[in-house]
Amino acid sequence: MTQPDSAPVPILRDPAPLLERVRAQWARQPAHGGSHADLWIFGYASLIWRPDFESTERHATRVHGWHRALKMWSRINRGTPERPGLVFALLPGGSCSGLVFRVPHRHSEAALAALWAREMPTGVYDPRWLPCATPHGTVRALAFTLSRRSPSFTGDLHPQQLREIFRHARGRYGSTLDYARQTHEALRQHGIDDRALGRMLDLAGD
Fold first, then answer.
1. Residues catalogued as catalytic
2. Can you give the pTM of this predicted structure?
3. Residue 86's domain is classified under what CATH number?
């Protein structure tokens, strides 16, 4: 699949109804030791090293049925419409190691608003509640997944395409290369060896 040379930032879906749906689903979550349910969030990439929300706990965990992949076009955060970058998504199949965060109920609305501003400005992700093991037992955590039918799904990129993206793609939060490197390092700090990501970074060179 070729990288688009220039394209407007696609608003795939209005993100506001998706946020309201998640709020309604969260309101039906069972509480753990309180009258209101805390919010659990699964981080598999930048949320591990820059969560941007208050949390009282975080635990290493693994989700099944989904895997981490640097296969989503980014035309805002790590690229531009003229030179798209890449960000991670959870794609169907396999499993994914990451961190699950517990956000206390009093901070949950602020956390959701921050997440939507950061992750969902174009409504690209499919928010899902995925089971995550914690010391408290299994909880349902909010995660951001991507359909392979999405126009933001890159498919398989050639090594030269990846090199060009790593060299040039930059958005409001910095470059694709820095994002990938920071994610790789954060995963290693938590004992997670993402060999596929390591091989991709080898293409960037120094």
1. 119
2. 0.90
3. 3.10.490.10
